[in-house]
Task: structure prediction
Amino acid sequence: QAQLVESGGGLVQPGGSLRLSCEASPTIFQTYTMGWDRQVPGKQRDWVARISHDGGIVYYTDSVKGRFTVSRDNARNMVYLQMNSLTSDDTGVYYCYSAPGGWGQGTQVTVSS
Result:
């Protein structure tokens, strides 16, 4: 089962950018679909982005299309989420996701002036 550790969250102003990172183990990471979910205040956790094991297929929820980019580096067991043009609606806890495996502990992203 994969162990996932997120980093890169923080406070950013509206319109700003953040890059989230997720370090994953074990060695079979390269065969996993990976991605990011988020839980905004008062709502259930929902998916944000998915990337296939080789990075060739990506999916985004509608609200982040054109602003967020998911990528992975299989040589380093890393998954990234580049977030641009952030708005207050993007505030929440972001979780790295693997299939199979589940979620990491999450990293807080706060978009506020």
Remarks:
- The chain has a mean pLDDT of 93.
- The CA atoms of residues 4 and 24 lie 5 Å apart.
